[in-house]
Amino acid sequence: MKMMKFYLLSSLLLVFPLLALCDDRQVYIVYMGEHSGDKTHQEIEDNHHSYLVSVKSSEEEARSSIVYSYKNSINGFAALLTADEAAILSQRNGVLRTFPSHNKYSLDTTGSWKFLGLEEGIGNGRKVGKSRGSEILHKAKYGKDVIVGLLDSGIWPESQSFHDQGLGPVPERWKGICEEGDSFDSSHCNNKLIGGRFYVKGYETDGALNRSNDYRSPRDKDGHGTHTSSTAGGRSVHNVGALGGFAHGSASGGAPLVRLAMYKVCWPVHGVTLQDGDTCYGADMLAAIDDAIGDGVDVISMSIGGGDVPFSQDVVAIATLHATKRNIVVACSAGNDGPTPSTVANTSPWILTVGASSTNRDAPAPVELGNNMKIKGESITPSKLKNHFYPLVYGGDVASPHVNSTPGQCLPGSLSLEKTKDKVVLCFRGEGTRVKKGAEVKRAGGAGMILANAATSGSEIIVDAHVLPATAVSNDDGTMILNYIQSAKNPTVKLSPGKTVFDDKPAPYMAGFSSTGPNPVYPNIIKPDITAPGINILAAWSRASSPTGLDADKRRVKYSFESGTSMSCPHIAGIVALVKAIHPTWTSAAIRSAIMTTATTKNSIGKLILTASGKEANPFNYGAGHVRPSKAYDPGLVYDATYTDYLLQLCDNGDGQVDPNFKCPEIPPTTSDLNYPSLSISNLNGSVTVKRTVTNVGGNGKAVYFANIDQQPEGFIFEIHPKILRFSHVGDKKRFMVTVKKERKTTAGEYSFGWYSWTDGIHVVRSPIAVSSSV
Question: What are the PA domain coordinates in residue numbering (predicted)?
Answer without folding.
Answer: 390-480
